[in-house]
Design a protein that fits this description.
By secondary structure, this protein is mainly alpha-helical. It contains 11 helices and no strands.
């Protein structure tokens, strides 16, 4: 009887092993879900932060004041802070008991933490310095005399910015957006604190890799997601590099 049980167990495990291998060769629904969610989060992070990044970058490029150094330091702070610290601060501010989170939920019924919006918020904050830096370099490369000439012809500050500065800086703006998009795709530390690791809701590619690595049979899935992350990052960097060359060429 024990020998028969051992043979049955061996046969069961042998029949299950090819199924796991066959499953490992195809893309699962969880992988597609993580990929779609990562793209959604990264796109939302870029769209939400770009309207703030452009004026701040222009201000840093043109403003001459001691306060400018303080503003530049605050903008660059997420680059040097551990992402977990950034996530903790966001959780304090946007949590259900936080000042901003409580206001949004009570006024608009909008909950940020532990939703995909929280993941987008974390990605936006972490990628914001990269976006601002690329856009600022683009504005630095524009001759201020062109703006002065436009204003001399009767254009106001806003008209000169929209008709002269922004079109000339457009390659840098797109480059900064692409860099922030790529950084958002790889965000992990702040996301897991603000949004959690909820399958189908907040589990992006980095969180899915972390989850699969901690499973006994999850290494093949993790490897596929790692390759996908590398390909997306390479594509984003190539696009950003090409746009930067175009902006400075």
């Amino acid at each position: 009887m024990p020998q028969r049980s051992q043979r049955c167990a061996a046969a069961t495990s042998a029949s299950a092993y090819p199924q796991r291998q066959e499953k490992g060769r195809s893309v699962t629904a969880e992988e597609w879900s993580a990929t779609r969610l990562s793209l959604l989060v990264a796109a939302a992070a870029v769209c939400g932060s770009l309207p703030f990044a452009i004026p701040i970058a222009f201000l840093l490029a043109r403003w001459r004041s001691p306060v400018r150094s303080l503003l530049e330091t605050l903008v660059s702070l997420p680059l040097v802070l551990p992402p977990v610290v950034t996530g903790y601060l966001l959780l304090l501010a946007f949590g259900r008991r936080g000042p901003i989170g409580a206001f949004l939920e009570q006024t608009f019924g909008l909950r940020v933490t532990f939703t995909w919006l929280g993941a987008a918020l974390a990605a936006a904050v972490v990628g914001f310095p990269l976006m601002v830096r690329a856009i600022r370099l683009a504005f630095d490369g524009i001759d201020p005399r062109l703006e002065a000439a436009a204003r001399g012809l009767g254009a106001g500050r806003w008209d000169a910015f929209v008709s002269v500065s922004l079109p000339l800086a457009l390659p840098g703006v797109v480059s900064g957006a692409v860099l922030a998009f790529a950084r958002s795709l790889g965000e992990f530390g702040a996301t897991i604190l603000v949004a959690g690791n909820i399958p189908g809701q907040t589990r992006t590619i980095p969180l899915a890799i972390f989850t699969e690595v901690n499973r006994p049979d999850g290494m093949p899935t993790a490897a596929r997601l790692v390759v996908l992350s590398i390909l997306l990052a390479l594509a984003a960097l190539l696009v950003s590099e090409r746009l930067e060359r175009r902006a400075h060429g």
